[in-house]
Design a protein that fits this description.
alpha+beta; Alpha-Beta Plaits; four-stranded antiparallel beta sheet; 3 helices; about 35% helix; about 40% strand; elongated
């Protein structure tokens, strides 16, 4: 099982917290961390600068599509940022914990 970090951003803390909570309760993710970020991006031809909340979701690659679906069902953005990063070298006990807590 390949550990990954899935990243998404939300408009507010409540939405980020709900997504993180639901993914862990559904056992799709082992854990999730929420950080406040400042984003600069172009949307519908306009330059935007906003405060957002980034959710870093620790999971396994086999759960990616289920997590993507769960995020899009709970997300308020028309085009939510959702991407995965493979986790390379890892402390073995942490890897074992992650896989055990995110396995289907």
């Amino acid at each position: 099982m390949t550990p990954i970090v899935i990243v998404t951003t939300t408009k507010d803390h409540q939405e980020a917290k709900q997504i993180a909570h639901d993914l862990v309760v559904l056992k799709l993710a082992a854990s999730a961390q929420i950080s406040v970020i400042n984003s600069v991006y172009r949307w519908q031809g306009e330059l935007c600068e906003t405060q957002e909340f980034q959710v870093s979701i620790k999971a396994i690659a086999a759960n990616y599509h289920a997590i993507e679906t769960a995020i899009t069902q709970r997300h308020s953005y028309d085009v939510p940022e959702i991407y995965a990063i493979p986790m390379g070298a890892m402390y073995p006990p942490y890897r074992n914990w992650l896989v055990a807590n995110a396995a289907p």
